[in-house]
Design a protein that fits this description.
Adenylosuccinate Synthetase, Chain A, domain 1; Adenylosuccinate Synthetase, subunit A, domain 2; Adenylosuccinate Synthetase, Chain A, domain 3; four-stranded mixed beta sheet; 32% helix; globular; Adenylosuccin_syn_GTP-bd; Adenylosuccinate_synthetase
Length: 429
Amino acid sequence: MANVVVVGAQWGDEGKGKVVDIYTEHADDIVRYQGGNNAGHTLVVGNEKVVLHLIPSGILHEGKRCIIGNGVVLDPEVFIREITKLKESGRIKDDSCLLLSESLHIIMPYHKRIDIAREAKSGDKKIGTTGRGIGPCYEDKIGRRGIRLMDLLNEEVFVRKVKEFLVEKNFLLENLLGEAPCNLEEIVAEYRGYAQILRTYVADTSLILEKDLKAGKSLLFEGAQGTLLDVDHGTYPYVTSSSTCAGGASTGSGVSPRQINEVIGISKAYVTRVGSGPFPTELLEETGEKLRQVGGEFGATTGRPRRCGWFDTMVIRYAVRINGLTGIALTKLDVLSDFDTIKVCTGYTYQGKALESLPAALEIFENCQPVYEELPGWKTDITAAKTFEDLPENAKKYVQRLEELAGCQIVMVSVGPRRDQTIVLRNPF
């Protein structure tokens, strides 16, 4: 048995939820280690579509323990709404299968209001946030003025901290952003109710994970967003506010990196991106729109249309290096089935010179020119394929070429949205 990290290898929305759902069969604990409800994992189980924002995808399997780690920022209202819906559908029968780290940070009303107001004032310099308060909450975490779950459960501490922090937050809202101030009494009353519900799920999750490791159990770490949205290693400032890469699995869960055996990067057979920022292979004409419509490329959290482009091996090689990928799960290969030819970006040039890796400078990244290789399409429905050999010859050649260019083994190929529409080439567990 092994401990496996699943990360997005592009700009997010790669299909991590489905892959985690499949790998959950082999794991005991499923751990979400970063992000907030700005993520949306869509799973299709039979004919039912389930969208999760905070709770790990492993919750759809009985007998598994799902943990939301200290690296996550939690909106209590969203979490409670999610567990309520799962319970109503019979998905959660025992509260002990879901645990929250006592050290995770809580999203407050002022975080969401600041997030939305900032974006509204940014004009053409918008980052493209979801307006869920994720960034402002992480700001307060790093600035040592955050409110942790353990604080919420102690009303005296909670009231004292909110009262202190509102001085600054209300000044910002009123004087810089032109918004109405937040009311202390309203916040305390609302969050008092949340505290009573959340108390059931709170634990020292790092300690529990250590005990499970010593007992020989396997862990599956689930990230949100993608490598190129990592706050340190992504296309800054058009990034999220947390560590989306494999290293975030340790810091966001309290589990040593020495305990991690495999890192699987999830990558679409093409590329999508939500929000602003550089995207060298973006298709702005009918081909991009075709990818969007056939692939259903609309955000699970916001409904926003995703920007679409050809597969970018510069991005995937970067993800292999930054995360130490031991395998790639290739999703949505079926979306390409109706194209006569398919392009693959094999490199970038800038001012006529070939680049060795992704440029850190935004000004260069935004002006890179992709170098393409064109491959023949297969023009055949592949959604019924059960093995790699079942795929059309050109589809197999496409997958093999991506593997060569990435320099990393492709261990899974998804040919449709359902669990059973997946070809597993190697099981990391």
